[in-house]
Specification:
Layout lengths: L6 H7 L5 E2 L20 H9 L20 H23 L1 E3 L20 E3 L6 E5 L6 E3 L12 E3 L4 E4 L13 E3 L4 E5 L12 E3 L4 E4 L14 E3 L4 E5 L12 E3 L4 E4 L13 E3 L4 E2 L5 H4 L7 E3 L15 H7 L7 E5 L2
Parallel strand pairs: 4-6, 5-7, 6-8, 7-9, 8-10, 9-11, 10-12, 11-13, 12-14, 13-15, 14-16, 15-17, 16-18, 18-19
Antiparallel strand pairs: 1-19, 2-5, 3-4
Length: 336
């Protein structure tokens, strides 16, 4: 596999022998906006699911409400002291901090005033650690799991290495886990199935191996955004993925998945984007799935080993199924 920094450029520069990319199903004068553009449906769906917008600043927290009483003050001190110990221990694992993001983290300081840390409105605990694009270098430390109230762990675009610690399975309140664009290795962290509130899972541009465990999708009612491209993942895409009713983005681009797209994807009415390009998927082009995805806007199936129902390159049945969509805008399908 090419170096991760080259993937996006290589994709832009690719010249498939036979590619179809065009707009369709613009019924009743409605034309869907692009995925990443201002005012796009991605942002409206993010808002609906309470997902932080990665393009904007860290979100949400009230900083200095009044104290609520002795009992509350004791709870607050105990929780924040534990958070302070965890954060200072995490700081010691960082071997390079070129932007001095952790410079203000000192013993006895106000955790809720630490740069890149946010607390809940009652100042009971830290709920967000946002070190996105900080260029930090160090092993991804299990000490982060001691931040028991953490809801948003945003560590994308750094140089963290090692494995994703199994101790992260104790972060029971975690909504968003963003570890994309690092140097993480090892097997896919199946223990993430233990996080019932997980909404955003982005592990793209690492070196993760192994299969996607079906258990990841056994209790995924909140899971809305899955970004796993590119990695070194293998095996079949589990049928259990159809248990995720809130899923709007499934990006498995540039892995080594085999088999066919699971028919259960047709159960996900919110699904907006499917990208499975550059895998080894086989069997028939999934007209039976796509025809039921009324909200889908973007489909990417290029560079797989899919065939038509009659083993020909006739794509008419597939695009006939697309006539059922109301918002689909872009399809990319390449012959091989």
């Amino acid at each position: 596999m090419a170096a991760t920094g080259d993937f996006k450029q290589a994709r832009r520069n690719s010249s498939p022998r036979y590619q179809i990319c065009f707009s369709f199903c613009q019924q009743n004068g409605r034309t869907a906006s692009t995925i990443d553009g201002p005012g796009s449906k991605f942002k409206s769906i993010k808002s609906r699911h309470g997902i932080p917008d990665s393009s904007g600043p860290a979100m949400f927290i009230h900083q200095h409400p009044p104290f609520e009483g002795t009992g509350s003050r004791h709870h607050r001190n105990h929780s924040l002291l534990a958070d302070e110990a965890a954060l200072l221990a995490f700081k010691k694992t960082i071997v390079f901090d070129p932007k001095s993001r952790l410079a203000g983290w000192t013993e006895g300081g106000d955790v809720c005033s630490f740069k890149v840390v946010r607390c809940d409105k009652h100042r009971h605990s830290g709920v967000q650690l946002n070190l996105s694009r900080s260029e930090l270098t160090g092993a991804l430390s299990p000490i982060i799991s001691n931040l028991s109230g953490l809801r948003y762990l945003i560590l994308d675009e750094n140089h963290f290495y090692g494995i994703i610690p199994p101790e992260f399975s104790s972060l029971r309140h975690l909504h968003s886990l963003r570890l994309d664009s690092n140097n993480l290795r090892g097997s896919f962290p199946g223990f993430l199935a233990a996080l019932p509130s997980l909404t955003v899972l982005t592990l793209s541009e690492n070196h993760l191996m192994g299969t996607l465990p079906p258990s990841l999708f056994s209790n995924c009612t909140s899971l809305a955004n899955i970004e796993l491209s590119p990695n070194l993942l293998t095996g079949k895409i589990p049928q259990e993925i159809g248990n995720c009713p809130s899923l709007w983005n499934l990006n498995l681009y540039n892995n080594q998945f085999t088999g066919e797209l699971p028919a259960s994807l047709a159960n996900i009415s919110e699904l907006y984007n499917i990208d499975v390009e550059y895998n080894s998927l086989t069997r028939e082009l999934p007209a039976n799935i796509v025809g039921k995805l009324y909200s889908v806007v973007s489909l990417h199936f290029s560079y797989n080993k899919m065939i038509n129902h009659d083993h020909s390159t006739n794509l008419e049945p597939f695009f006939t199924a697309l006539a059922n969509c109301t918002e689909s805008q872009n399809a990319s399908i390449t012959s091989h």
